[in-house]
Amino acid sequence: MMWTGILILILLISAYLRLPLLIWSLLLAGGLVAFTLFADAAVSQLSLLWLVYAAVIIPLNFKFIRLNFISRIIYGAMKKVMPTISQTEQEALDAGDVWWEAELFSGKPDFNFIKNLPKPELSDEEQAFIDGPVEEFCKMLDDWQITHVDYDLTPEAWQFAKDNGFFSLIIPKQYGGLDYSAYCHSQIVMKIGSRSGSAGVTVMVPNSLGPGKLLMTYGTEEQKDYYLPRLAKGIDIPCFGLTGPDAGSDAGAMPDTGVVCYGSYEGKDNVLGVRMNWTKRYITLAPIATILGIAFKLSDPEHLLSDEEDRGITLALVKRETEGVEIGKRHFPANHAFMNGPIRGKDVFIPIESIIGGVDYVGKGWAMLMECLGDGRAISLPALGTAAGKMSAKYTGAYARIRQQFHTPIGHFEGVEEALTEIAGQAYIMDASRSLVTVALDSGAVPSVISAIVKLQVMERMRDVLNHSMDIHGGHGICMGPHNHLGRPYQLIPVGITVEGANILTRTMIIFGQGAMRSHPYLLKEVKAVHNEDQKQGIKDFDNAFFAHMGFIVSNIVRSFWFGLSYAKFVSTPGEQGTRYYYQQLVKMSSAFALLSDICVGVLGGSLKRREKISGRLADALSNMYIMTAVLKHYENQGSHKEDLILVKWACEDSLFNIQTALKSIMENLPVPFIGALCNFIIFPLTKPYKRPSDKLGHKLARLTLTPSETLDRLSAGVFNSDDKDNSIGRISHALSLVLKTDELQHKLRDAYKHERISSRDSDAYLEAKEKNIITDTEYTLLLEAEAAIQNAIKVDEFSFNDWKIETP
Ligand SMILES: Cc1cc2nc3c(=O)[nH]c(=O)nc-3n(C[C@H](O)[C@H](O)[C@H](O)COP(=O)(O)OP(=O)(O)OC[C@H]3O[C@@H](n4cnc5c(N)ncnc54)[C@H](O)[C@@H]3O)c2cc1C
Q1: Number of other CB atoms surrounding residue 4 within 10 Å
Q2: N or C: which end of the chain has fewer CB within 10 A?
Q3: 376 neighbors 217 (Cβ within 8 angstroms)
Q4: In the prediction, which pLDDT does 322 show?
Q5: Residue 780: CB atoms within 10 Å
Q6: Average of pLDDT values for 73-89?
Q7: Whose CA is nearest to atom 26 of ligand 1?
Q8: Predicted TM-score of the model (pTM)
């Protein structure tokens, strides 16, 4: 019995430690030798054991036998069932870099990767830019004027943005750009977005995926020298047209065409070029753009460029004034006034030099777009979403403190508290998530899967946070007008959800689909081996990947089960008291995720592509593991302030619960219920270990939003603030400071009322309290001042019947 136990232990420890097959086999052989020598076993029993050992270990360790008698057969079977990868899919897969998600896919994340990442910081120049021109720009913006009166930024704001290089954040200095870091870029968009969503989008688009980025990455020297300085100075305003009426999410299916031919251009005849026809819509900045980036499918029927006729998706720059270009009217996206509209082209002729990157890049448009999508997607919308999170944490919290009902600040009611808790916790998650990805970008990596995760998760949390904020503000959030600071951000939610990869598609198709292929240690190697035209090499590669993969699965089974039993308490991880537990749970969930990913791929095979509910949940698990990492790193980056631990704890517990929900839902919905139940037993042997963050913890987060503190300052850092009593947010902070100043006095008044020394608890009793010497004259004046500030902060705008003009209530 003891010997059997020792043999099993050798097997389990080898699997846990992921020892190479040979070492594992030798250890087992050692165990068997000891068993043979010292155990009092019957010869028949020993013979059987050695026979089984030889039957399993010899074919596995002897390459010739394994290759020819095992791998060849599995390879043949796989070739029949494994779906091919289309060119478009391959280009999407190849785009960007693999980053931290590969560690999460490994089931054994190496935290040194995260530990060694630098803290995101601004240079002095960047900080000065944010404190100077960005602050000034924010003060110039009146979101109501922009979205309701002018439907545009003022000419002064446009000019200011151009003169100060707001459209050149990513353009290198040699071309006149600012060339700021990704982190700085994110901080800028966040600050502007916190003041005006329309201005935020206006600034973010030229700095995101568009002509600027594409030219920097692929442009010819002539193209860069001509366009980049013009874009940097705002002489040219760019837009990029990919989407059309028939090609939204499935942009690769665009019907837009370009035919290589000779034509006339700017007075010259017989120019080699492309005749284009396109219909694009939803194109940001299109109504005022001077230079249009267009994606289209190029064909070369006369073989003027090469022997190939269909050349594939190609990107070109078209000047606005080119004959045949039709700049459409304006769309009105969710009551926001950034420029957006359709553009059409009919028989537009452009010279061949207008193709971005020149003829070398003909047909590479899809790969170029995929490659460049990562940066912008990780910066722009996550920055806007985080702005909404931070503004909500600060101003919805403040509003919930100054707004009283039932003689109580509404933020003290448990119902409202629940919403405030979510706001604080999600804002922390959003900030952590978007900060960490900028570190990747600033190191030169473009982590395409992580950028999709950050975009998706921050946008979903923006939706949550703004819904909660709206609930807490009640009518105050609903009634639009210059004093409403919430209505427009609320209306911006669907824009963030849809743009730069619509969320449903990103969650259910992209994150796990691309993640598994790119970041799984063996999957892509197996797929590539199976599709290798050189069959001999294919079988060799397949053999290596397949057997390593099998060992990986066995290891993840052992590790998951052990972690399930032990809560991963014995795993050595970074962290301190208060955070180490979460690092350990991350190891545990990473191994469970790695195991379940393989189970899903194994059980569903190619059909996993269509089983979006399953791949969406795998994406949820992966996303929440990224979030936990980001939160733990963010806490350290911000100086590991103990007071911030409540935010870390809430965010990690929320994430763990989300991961558990996602994994359990997958297991409950696998087509073979037995496999699901078995996985559940391995991963969660102690039923459901994770719970939603407790009410007690939630209470602390909610209270955090109600009064100023250093933690709240860190949580809301980087957004636009104002103390101006007439400003939509300034009036709330002003009222809050007076409410907090008079808090003690209110206690005094409440006490006086309780003991029937004054007749009411309301403001009409202030005078009575003063006359009865319960409060002094100065205190009376302060109370009146606070009351006036509250009334000013809670008022909503009114409009005249006839001309819809604002009337001061
Ligand atoms: C304000 C705004 C600005 C924009 N700016 C630009 C721009 O500057 N340039 C540009 O080229 N485009 C731009 N777009 C277009 C944007 O990228 C598209 O709106 C987006 O790609 C979705 O396309 P669609 O709106 O046609 O939705 P559809 O493609 O019709 O999708 C509708 C829904 O179906 C879901 N869906 C579709 N296919 C799948 C699938 N296989 N699995 C799961 N779910 C799926 C989507 O997630 C979405 O929820 C902008 C859009 C808006 C609204």
Answers
A1: 12
A2: N
A3: no
A4: 97
A5: 17
A6: 81
A7: 248
A8: 0.95
The CA–CA distances, whole Å, from 394 to 80, 370, 428, 674, 788 equal 58, 36, 12, 49, 21
Q: Which residues pair with 240 in a beta bridge?
A: 293
pLDDT of residue 809 exceeding 70: no
Tell me the CA–centroid distance for residue 491 and ligand 1, in Å. 17
Is residue 371 part of the annotated active site? The answer reads no
According to DSSP, residue 302 is labeled T
Burial class (CB within 10 angstroms; exposed 0-12, middle 13-18, buried 19+) of 661: middle
The pLDDT assigned to 627 comes to: 98
Residue 599 to residue 298: CA distance in whole angstroms: 42
Tell me which of 352-361, 382-391, 510-519, 551-560 is least confident: 510-519
Q: Are 398 and 733 in contact (CB under 8 A)?
A: yes
The structure tokens listed for 438 are 């900028």
Cβ atoms of residues 608 and 615 within 8 Å? yes
pLDDT of 89 reads: 75
Q: Which of 91, 417, 422, 500 is catalytic?
A: 500
d(CA 215, CA 203): 18
- Atom of ligand 1 minimally distant from the CA of 336: 1
Is residue 624 within 8 Å of 662, Cβ to Cβ? yes
Residue type, 85: I
* 251 DSSP 8-state letter: G
Which residues have any ligand 1 atom within 6 Å of their CB?
240-243, 248-249, 282-284, 333, 340, 495, 498-499, 502, 504-505, 508-509, 612
Residue nearest to atom 50 of ligand 1 (CA): 282
Tokens read off for 393: 């944490």
Report pLDDT for 720.
97
Q: Does the pLDDT at position 606 exceed 90?
A: no
Give the mean pLDDT of 334-345: 96
Extract the tokens encoding 692: 């939603």
Q: What is the pLDDT of residue 688?
A: 79
Residue from 243, 331, 332 to probe ligand 1 pocket by mutation (most atoms less than 8 Å from CB): 243
Lowest-pLDDT range, 44-53, 146-155, 491-500? 44-53
| CA of residue 649 to ligand 1 center, whole Å | 35
Q: What is the mean pLDDT of residues 453-465?
A: 98
Q: How far is the CA of 295 from the centre of ligand 1 (A)?
A: 15
* pLDDT (mean) for 734-738: 97
Q: Output the residue whose Cα is nearest ligand 1's atom 41.
A: 505
Residues whose CB is less than 8 angstroms from the CB of residue 536 and which lie 6 or more positions away in sequence, other chains included: none
Beta-sheet strands, E only, within 352-495: 404-405, 408-409
Mutate to test the pocket of ligand 1, among 499, 508, 610 (most ligand atoms within 8 A of CB): 499
Give SS3 for 52: helix
Task: Tell me the average pLDDT across 794-807.
Answer: 83
Give the atom of ligand 1 at the shortest distance from the alpha carbon of 503.
Answer: 47
Return the SS3 of 85.
coil
Residue with CA closest to ligand 1 atom 11: 242
